[in-house]
Amino acid sequence: MTETAAAFPRFKTEAGRARYLAAYDAALADWPVPHEALDVPTRLGPTHVVASGPTDAPALVLLPSFAGSAVVWRLNVAGLSQSYRTYAVDVIGQPGKSLARRRIRNRREFAGWLIDLLDGLGVQRASIVGVPSAVSWP
Questions:
Q1: DSSP calls for 51-120
Q2: What is the pLDDT of residue 133?
Q3: How far is CA 75 from the centre of its chain?
Q4: How buried is residue 113: exposed, middle or buried, by Cβ count under 10 Å (0-12/13-18/19+)?
Q5: CA–CA separation, 91 vs 75, rounded Å?
Q6: pLDDT tens track for 5-46
Q7: What is the reported pTM?
Q8: Dist CA 82 CA 95 (whole Å)
Q9: Are strands 85-89 and 59-63 parallel, antiparallel or unpaired?
Q10: CA quadruple 85, 120, 49, 124: dihedral positive or negative?
Q11: What are phi and psi of 82, to 5 degrees?
């Protein structure tokens, strides 16, 4: 079984996966500021991040709501990237280009993933902005 086939999020069909990724890439093509796409290795799998803004600016990690992806920040990132190095994250196990090798079981695992992500980005200090969700962790 390939990593993609065993990873989350899962797609019912390869055609559905291809349509989703095409829509994602189209939204990213409208990203209003220069950016780079990064895939950061973590204990739960590679995490996709869209980085924008000055590399020497303070770090600002942007987390989407449940069932959202990094591209939801497209309308806000131009203003935020003026003063911050923004990192729009495809949260592991949710829609996007990050690939969880297995489901996250609890908050401790999620916290470990976030630590891995920040370490992989070389971020020692960051502000975090998130969109609240009604989902709770066991």
A1: EES-TTSPEEEEEPPTT--GGGGTTTHHHHTTTSEEEEE--TTSSSS--BSS---SHHHHHHHHHHHHHH
A2: 56
A3: 16
A4: buried
A5: 19
A6: 456 667 888 899 899 999 999 999 999 999 999 999 999 999
A7: 0.88
A8: 27
A9: parallel
A10: negative
A11: -70, -35
